[in-house]
Amino acid sequence: MKPLFSDTSAEAERVLIECYRRMSHERKGRCIAEMNEALRALQLADIKARHPHADAYEIKMRLASRWIEPELMFAAFGWDIEKEGY
Q: Is residue 60 part of a domain?
């Protein structure tokens, strides 16, 4: 099997995969939700660092533009990623 992670030993990866296999579906769902929330927090921090004077609307649009396809962002919100950026 090809390694999943370039910075993790094969043994550590095997143990990690075994832990995931033993997890309940509920626990896996919580892990995914927690990772998504952590990702969202990191993205918000990045946006605020890059655009320190952005208001709440602009921050919301920049965050959404990282998750939504450019065509849909423009159609739904008028946010042109090519012009405004992420």
A: yes
* Contact status, residue 21 vs residue 37, Cβ threshold 8 Å: no
Q: pLDDT digits over 40-50, tens only?
A: 999 999 999 99
- Helix (H) or strand (E) holding 34, with range, is helix 25-50
| Whether the model pTM is above 0.85 | no
Alpha-carbon Rg for the chain, nearest whole angstrom, is 18
Of 63, 65, 67, 60, which is closest to residue 80 (Cα–Cα)?
65
Task: For residue 57, tell me if it sits in a domain.
Answer: yes
**Cβ-contact 44, 37 below 8 angstroms:** no
Does residue 79 contact residue 73 with C-beta atoms inside 8 Å?
A: yes
CA-CA distance, 45 to 47, in Å (whole number)? Answer: 6
Residue with tokens 């320190």: 52
Does any domain span residue 4? Answer: no
